[in-house]
Amino acid sequence: MSMLEALGAQEDLGTERLRLLESSLLGDVPQLDRFVRHDVLDWAAEAVSAPVASRAADVLVAAAAPAYADGVTDHWRRLAVTGFLGAEIEHADETMPTGHARLDQLLAEVAAADIAAREAWRQAVTQMQVWTTRWAPAMHEATWALHLTDRLRLAADAQLAAVLAFRSGGFNAHDAAYGVWNALSGLVHATLADDLLADEHRARLTLVHRLVGTGPA
């Protein structure tokens, strides 16, 4: 095999791995169940033990599972969400405020993204791919700073709000797999830990957003 053929084979393998990342589920339905009961509903300890609260958690899990699992038919999906819809619980398809003014502004911008804005994010991510190895250390520093200052709950809420903004802005699974989500997630952490991060790490986590043209100069 020639050098060019070897490089081509490596590129094909890399593309296939990205496609797998784009389409694969994280975890399984039992893990989703635990996430809903023990993380999302951790503020209500009764969600695990009390009969009424446990049944309410059952409804939430049943509604979430079809959207999460692959290959579920529309018929079973409708049956699974009947209890949730029947409860007439208000739910949001748009960005929820986090209470952090600067972050809420950023997420509102993402949620309102049009075709040009989405393309700007994609191009900025592509432009900065050579620096992706520096993203993880910067993200680690931001997460550690948030942990030490007891801001992890705020950070978790902010990341979930960012998911809503990402979807509302028209970004898709391909964008998530190819780095746009990492860029947004890092921006969220950097914004929450702005007063704690070293300049180097702050610059790394906010660089894509600044390249998009909506961030600080």
TrEMBL record:
| Entry superkingdom | Bacteria
According to UniProt, the name of this protein is Uncharacterized protein
What broad taxonomic lineage does this protein's source fall under? Bacteria, Bacillati, Actinomycetota, Actinomycetes, Propionibacteriales
